[in-house]
Description:
The protein is mainly α. It has one domain. Helices cover 83% and strands 0% of the residues. It has nine helices and no strands. Helix 3 packs antiparallel against helix 4 and helix 4 packs across helix 7.
Amino acid sequence: MVMEFITFKVICIFLFLMLMTSIEVLGYGVRLVGAKLALVASAFAIYNIMSLIARFSNMFQQPFTASLVDSAAKNGGLELLIKQFRFLLLGSTMGVLLGGLLVPFFMKVFSKALIPLSKDGSFLNMFKLINSTNLKRMKNYFVLINKNNLEGVNFRNIPIKLFVINTIVSAVFTVGVMSALYATLLIPDYDKAAMSSSNIITGVATILLTLLIDPKLSFLTDKVVQDNHNYWELKNFTFMILISRFLGTLVAQIILVPGAYYIAWFAKFIS
């Protein structure tokens, strides 16, 4: 039955993962706005904060997810744990979809927030814009992604190699913690080594995401500032990131268990 594995704790972790993944996705919308308004530095500051929060959250959720493993270890419910982990991975998938749908809306919101930030560089002054009057105005900006937003996007120009690499790295980043936690049940005698490997996995994945994506985004953003005709190239690349991020969460479902066995082997190898 469904309720066997969807507990209150699981729902809370699911919502947390969905929210954090959405924040990460919305961060790319900030870069688009910054390029369009020629406020690259201010946009980059907000993007870095959103990206840092989202990527740090992957480690932050670890103790909460680990409590599910403790319950499974006591009750011998490995199959139940896998179902819970797959449900949590679905939270990341839903987060990408939600963030992608809301990108046009938040681009309008960010366009208003970037101006005060660019004047004095104070995040506090930017947050002062959050009041009842401005919150009421936000409903006028509300729009979901539609055909007009996809205008100019040519999927034939997507760099296939980078698309595949980003999909794989996103999958590893998404599933790293859960695979490591599952591995602790496969090799209880080496559980500390298996658990420690999750930090290595997420750390390497974070570095790869930063090295592969951020430089290319910065390069395209600079091109837009120099020549606004290149905005479509940046937009194209951004959509490539979103699609590969979405596919990465689906691939994570596939490598969840194999990844756990690989981590278990690696933990034994280094011990």
